[in-house]
Structure formats: C-alpha cells, structure tokens
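pasting for the record
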Amino acid sequence: MAKKTRQKFEYVEPIGHRVLVRKDEPKRETKGGIALPDAAEIPTITGRIVTISTAIENDEDVPLKQYDKVLFHPKNAIPVDFEADNQLFVVPIEDIVAVFRRDAPAE
C-alpha cells in the first residue's frame, strides 16, 4: 500500500472582502520604559498586509494593498495555523480601522 505524503501549503489566499495580515510583535514596554505584562489587552493590533483578496484588489473604494501597515481589531480576525509562530490572521476589511501612510493624500 502506497504511503500518502502530506503536502505543505505554500500560499493562503483570502476570499471575499478579507486580507491576510502578519501581526506585528507585541510591545513589551511603553515609550516611557514601563514594562507591560503579557496579559495586557490591547483592543487593536498592528500588522502588515501579506495578501489581499481578488475582491479587494478589484474594488477601487478600498484603499488597501499588499505590504500596507494597518491597525485592525482582532475580534473577528481568524488565526491561520500556517507557521510555527502563528502570526498570520485573515481579517475582514470591516475590522481594518486604519492604514499607516508616509504621505498625506493629495487634495
């Protein structure tokens, strides 16, 4: 009997109006030097967009693109068990609350 080999996934593509975000490392202390406990709850998290869905890519009303740094609310974020450190999340665009930009938009 032939032994089945387990294939490793190489790519995760979000479906619908969702993005794949790699969460930034949590801060362990404040700018003032105060150490934060591991259990400190922060209602929003920053990260970088790894991949966007085709629906978002084709939607001119959604100003998100790959590699954008975003602030997102983790309540509806779905962790992706894809890497050992599990820093990837599929996030609905409704939970993206801000995008960090270097330049202000032209008026």
